[in-house]
Fold this sequence. Notes:
Layout: E1 6-9, H1 18-21, E2 27-35, E3 41-46, E4 52-56, E5 60-62
Antiparallel strand pairs: 1-2, 1-5, 2-3, 3-4
InterPro entries: Tsr0524-like
Pfam families: Tsr0524-like (PF11061)
Protein name: DUF2862 domain-containing protein
Amino acid sequence: MEIGQKVKVFRLRDRVSPPVVKRLGQVGVIQSFKMTDASGVGVVVKFEDNFSTWFFEDELRVEQ
Length: 64
């Protein structure tokens, strides 16, 4: 995964807030990466409506 790539949210690993649940199945663009609690790297995704949040890499699929 690289900054600028389009990704689709295809699953959610943990319980999350309703605004994040709403993103399931949506496509956004990778904006940056962030360190999580030592268990890996998070991916910050921005959507068409300018909402952005982070996901674990295994919650996303790269769109072609």
